[in-house]
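Below is a filled-in request sheet from our internal design queue. Each sheet records the structural input a requester submitted and the sequence that came back. We keep these sheets so that new team members can see what a complete request looks like end to end.

REQUESTER: design group, bay 2
PRIORITY: normal
MODE: inverse folding
CHAIN LENGTH: 481
BACKBONE (tokenized):
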């Protein structure tokens, strides 16, 4: 199988009327990590995963040539929980006969396209992954003491082909995030005649953007920086005609010091989870530079490219302005966009006419209310009506559900309870291992009691000994030969 070959069809789900130990909803990196580690549970567990897309792809619109991950290659699907797993990135390199080239390349941060290829390699070989299956609803069946998962099997065109239902003791939600488009720009983003696109669709629209006379990039994070740099490099010197706007007060570097990175450890997740809800809500917005800044290498490359264009005199026709928000926006004729801008510090307003807009405005957690409507009577919510999530990544449900040993786990939907590390790839394997240890009632994957030099808070959170970490009352799974 080549790196470009999509995974082979998983076929029809087998025996969905028989209760599963685990049903995963969504197959992004986090649930793929869970599936890979579940594959290594001694005796095995009955697990199946559903994904509505026809194959695995990780942010295909942002696989810009040369763009690297912001985490080391050790933050693959499994290594930080099980370095000996056959699903590690190094195992992938060995299967491609690329271990020695990687060794001599001395790379700690791999390219995004290579990470995507690695994940597709795993997804094409693991059993129990069912692409082209859209999950419609999750319900609790009190008579059977099981969750019901209703799904629609899709054909190659994405149309409904068949309906099905699976029964399971545990559900893991890994549906990921969706592109966020600010309200003033939603009507324009939905209009086909004006190129106002989210960064998630950048590569698909790249040639259209390169052909535009003037382009505006909105957003100061890593995606915005990479897109600005790519467009800048592709436009003639002196005739760049590109604006880069951001609400933040500066095009700021990401916090990447070694002690700063300890905010992405299990230690910090436990500390954050133990804080009062009001403190957590105040803390997350202030930590934006931990995950929304720009890596130093990209900042340097942008400055170097701008400087190179001054060597023969003059300045590049590129405007970089932080501290600006878009109040409203509209079309001018059928081919241009007018942005109404406000600079907060100056308390001034202005207008900008442009031929194309790229929205590097980030992502938001996908709403789960519709899918989980059947569980709403059992769900416990916080003061902001968000689902409450315990330290083991379980939704806090009514005891009539959890008392049976059945749980709903979440992946990358718990920033409000676990902090900025929720969407970080570096915590993927640890979170998956935590879920599997809790689900099986065993220490399938031994996890370290301490992971950071920093002691967050005056008192360290109390944690159960490893052998007692599983929830009391959980029925261990029967090992299968």
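RETURNED SEQUENCE:
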């Amino acid at each position: 199988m080549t790196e470009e070959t999509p995974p082979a069809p998983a076929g029809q789900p087998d025996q969905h009327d028989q209760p599963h130990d685990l049903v995963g909803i969504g197959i992004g990196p986090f649930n793929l990590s869970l599936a890979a580690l579940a594959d290594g549970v001694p005796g095995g567990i009955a697990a199946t995963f559903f994904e509505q897309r026809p194959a695995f792809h990780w942010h295909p619109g942002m696989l810009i040539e040369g763009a690297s991950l912001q985490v080391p290659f050790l933050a693959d699907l499994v290594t930080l929980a099980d370095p000996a797993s056959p699903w590690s990135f190094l195992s992938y390199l060995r299967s491609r006969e690329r271990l020695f080239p990687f060794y001599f390349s001395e790379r700690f941060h791999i390219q995004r396209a290579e990470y995507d290829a690695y994940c597709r390699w795993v997804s094409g070989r693991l059993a129990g992954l069912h692409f082209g299956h859209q999950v419609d609803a999750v319900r609790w069946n009190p008579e059977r003491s099981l969750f019901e998962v209703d799904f629609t099997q899709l054909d190659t065109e994405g149309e409904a082909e068949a309906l099905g239902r699976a029964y399971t003791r545990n559900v893991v939600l890994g549906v990921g995030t969706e592109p966020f488009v600010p309200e003033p720009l939603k009507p324009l983003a939905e209009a086909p005649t004006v190129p106002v696109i989210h960064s998630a669709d950048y590569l698909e629209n790249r040639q259209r953007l390169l052909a535009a006379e003037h382009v505006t990039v909105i957003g100061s994070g890593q995606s915005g920086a990479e897109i600005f740099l790519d467009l800048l490099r592709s436009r003639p010197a002196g005739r760049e005609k590109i604006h880069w706007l951001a609400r933040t007060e500066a095009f700021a570097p990401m916090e990447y010091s070694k002690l700063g990175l300890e905010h992405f450890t299990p230690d910090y997740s436990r500390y954050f989870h133990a804080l009062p809800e009001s403190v957590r809500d105040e803390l997350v917005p202030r930590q934006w530079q931990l995950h929304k800044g720009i890596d130093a290498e990209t900042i340097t490359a942008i400055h170097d490219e701008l400087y190179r264009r001054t060597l023969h005199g003059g300045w590049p026709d590129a405007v970089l302005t932080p501290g600006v928000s878009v109040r409203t926006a509209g079309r001018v004729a059928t081919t241009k966009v007018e942005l109404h801008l406000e600079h907060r510090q100056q308390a001034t307003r202005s207008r900008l006419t442009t031929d194309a807009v790229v929205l590097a405005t980030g992502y938001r957690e996908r709403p789960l209310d519709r899918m989980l409507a059947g569980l709403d009577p059992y769900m416990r919510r916080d003061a902001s009506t968000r689902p409450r999530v315990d330290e083991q990544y379980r939704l806090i449900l009514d005891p009539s559900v959890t008392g049976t040993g059945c749980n709903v786990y979440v992946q990358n939907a718990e920033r409000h309870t676990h902090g900025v590390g929720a969407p970080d790839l570096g915590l993927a394997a640890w979170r998956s291992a935590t879920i599997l240890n809790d689900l099986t009632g065993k220490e399938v994957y031994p996890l370290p009691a301490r992971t950071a030099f920093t002691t967050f808070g005056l008192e360290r959170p109390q944690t159960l000994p490893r052998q007692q970490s599983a929830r009391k009352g959980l029925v261990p799974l029967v090992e299968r030969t």
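SHEET NOTES:
- The longest strand covers residues 133-141.
- Residues 112 and 377 are 41 Å apart (CA to CA).
FILED BY: M.R.
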